[in-house]
Specification:
alpha/beta, 3-stranded mixed β-sheet, 2 helices, 6 strands, about 40% helix
């Protein structure tokens, strides 16, 4: 029973170390692109529509665009993980059409 526990702990530690290495490599890649713009842009922007999902009393949901600011340009980083306070562009593109629940 002790060897199974040891293997589980070791596997968990190996997973944490692997994730840390992948994050570090992603960060180095972003820094490389910042220092060498010819290798590709490190940062970008994504147009997001501000669509509100407004629940009604009858249980239905009404969708309405923001009247003041229907589209917003969000800054993003071209990477797998968030860096320097910016969300990854792939994540913003995936969620750019999702309604904002009210």
């Amino acid at each position: 029973m002790g060897s199974v526990s040891f293997l589980v702990k070791r596997g968990f530690i190996a997973l944490i170390v692997l994730l840390a290495l992948v994050y570090a490599a992603d960060d180095v890649w972003v820094r490389w692109k910042m220092a060498h713009p010819k290798s590709g842009e490190a940062f970008g922007t994504v147009q997001m529509e501000r669509l509100y999902a407004i629940p009604q009393k009858n249980g239905k949901v009404e969708y309405e665009f923001d009247a003041l600011q229907p589209e917003v340009t969000m800054p993003c980083v071209h990477s797998v993980f968030p860096h320097r306070g910016d969300t990854p562009c792939w994540y913003l593109r995936r969620n750019s059409q999702k309604p904002i629940p009210m």
